[in-house]
Amino acid sequence: MADATPRRDVLPPHDPGFGVYVHWPFCLAKCPYCDFNSHVRHAPPDQARFIAAFRAEIAHMRGMIGQRRTASVFFGGGTPSLMEPATVGAILEAIDTAWPLDARAEITLEANPTSVEAGRFRGYRAAGVNRVSLGVQALDDAALKALGRMHSAAEALAAVAVARAAFERVSFDLIYARPAQTPEAWRAELIRAVEEGCEHLSLYQLTIEDGTPFAALHRAGRLSVPDEDVARALWDVTQATTAEVGLPAYEISNHARPGAESRHNLLYWRYGEYAGVGPGAHGRLDTPEGRRATMVERGPESWLSRVEAAGHGIVTDEALSRSEQADEFLLMGLRLGEGIGRHRYAALAGRDLDPARVAALVEQGLLEDLAGERLRVTSAGFPVLDAIVADLAA
Fold this sequence. Notes:
With 394 residues, the protein is of the alpha/beta class.
């Protein structure tokens, strides 16, 4: 069997770069498993008003941090493919004015694979988007219906074909550990996904999130998910199959052909700097006073009102201590197959990791310590990653 351990053998740069996350908070319908900041409105939003608000918030954050060169932009949601291409173009223009876009900047837009949204793909490409991430979620019609999705498997695959014709780079998401799903059926679904020719897959295990319709159904005994043993078998199939077909995991839930990794998401996991604009967006900004954690007002209408009154919607702006930064670096970086550089951890924390804790995890086969320079989680460790991070951070 191919080695299923997510890994890369090259240390990441010390400075992962600067990116911008743009949150579009609207969806046509709320999926029953989703706890993201997404909202359904009967009347379409005033996109011109939103453009003006995005411009103002971007300009405000430019004033907080000064000049940067933008390596990546990510339009997330919600459903960004409900935006008009002209809206996407106007926001990219505002970002370029504040923090000039690098000539090789990765610009990703999340999209639902319906025929209506696929019809906008060429417009997004003309606006500057060069990578699309499609929320396919399943290649089985019954599963799509159970997940509350508004497209069929055939429609999703048609949208993938349109996307591949329009964009340089295409990714799509699938959800596994669905009710009654077997490892054999999941392997077949994965192979079918790979046959579509995408360079990148994001594969997420279904979790029951508090406050969602799925959580209520689960509590009532009307929704069952695979037990721990089956979930582990599904995880093992995921890792083995993607490695076998040339899309190994480079992060705990993300798989790509070498060189096709999401540069924006790598920026997060390598603990780079990013501005989060739009309702509910989070950011990590390096100001003259140090690194700050920002969060923007979640409600779309409340956000608009705040931005129009004050020039921004920021409701949280907190300085991060050295230990908080080190903990975040640990939490994000150990998700990656390449692991973390110990020297960077020490530079952030002002101290090295506890050698005894590291040695114990290595002895248990959960962690690799590479010449005292880098730590990375093993294939046996990834299913218990949260416990490893908690142990090291203690």
